[in-house]
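Look over this one:
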Amino acid sequence: MAWPALGGAVRPRERVSTGGPSVESGGSRPDGGAAATIEPLLALFVGHPLPVRFELWDGSAVGPEGGPGSVVVRSPEALRHALWAPGELGLVRAYVAGALEVRGDLFEVLRTLRRSLADPLRADPLRADPLRADPRLVARAVQALVRLRALGPPPKRPPVEASARGRLHSRGRDSQVITHHYDIGNDFYRLVLGPSMTYSCARFAEGVDGLDDAQASKHDLVCRKLGLHERPGSRLLDVGYGWGSTALHAARHYGAHVVGVTLSAAQAELARRRVQEAGLEHLVEVRLQDYRDLRGERFDAISSIGMSEHVGKGETAGYFELLHSLLTEPGRLLNHAISSVGGSVMRRRSFIGRYVFPDGELLDVGDVVLAMERAGFEVRDVESLREHYSKTLHTWVGNLDANWDRAIELVGLARARVWRLYMAASANGFDDGGVSAHQVLGVKPSSTGRSGMPATRRDWS
């Protein structure tokens, strides 16, 4: 995503809340001030006329009034971030560090900026990263910084930025990446996700009331697609276990014997506690284990929910081949993952790649289907849950905003900013169809071709 969110200008008479970003600004200077100096550079990034209002640290402002909100530049440090790391990364660093802020409706400000960047009548092929694409513009940027007395050394990177080391998707590096994203505190995740502790999209079916019920509806959909209701006592492998919500549902409602594997120590700790509190130790086993170490075991069903995004396209064939080898005949696999047409790599210089999901990759659902078929699965069903994920994310952002001060206590302001921006921008991506979420159901038939599948979807719909 480009220009995912930007951050706030503070003058002595301004107040910046510690909650969901809200800034009271002092108005525009008649001489144009800092805003007049940097307006040409802003236009290079987001188009002319400017799609939203920009407010500067000296009280000056430029851009339309009365829109959904404004981008507030709290200090010249924001410009140094943009100069030393041109493009999305520098702007996000400024936002995470608090040098940039968004005032007003974050969702709509992001949508407005994204539409401006995507407008074919206004789009400049350099605008996504103009300083890097045209070095001559660097001189103009430096001149503007000199006039604003803002030139200086590169600002420090926010400490919450990831710096994974080692070979891509090696066991050690994958462990670092999972720790960066998931081991930030179970209390924070509970605040955002709610009591269900489910970090994937809910299913807001007819008659479902609220996020927790919608998550239970999703868990039940997964269990029924896997046929657990037809075979009580089935052995289920849950890869990328999370905090155990799917496994708990499968054990509690269908008597499944579940093995869950995760690389997150924090997730495993809480999952074990939840299993004990539910009195389901005899049915659910929680392992701190790499999925690649699963050998020689057999399962009747496998759920992979929000896991394959971490596997990587180059490892996908091996991932599905391994899962296929672990299934009995007939056995079922449900792969639930965020998808993108043509696929999408979380680039090292992107917001998502540096702050949210280092090394993550979104696959085209067609590539997932093909990889599963090549691994020996017979694909029986594909379902999109795109709109459900948007509604889920809007609810998570609402949870974060309602508990903003507590979130800062738990993980710090910088990480709370990362999460608010990441979830809001992701919700917009699901809204406009830039990304989706698909469940792909595959079967490992018996040697005689028996699939064990019901005749119609009615069995789980």
Q: What stands out?
A: The CA atoms of residues 183 and 266 lie 5 Å apart. The chain has two domains: 15-147, 171-459.
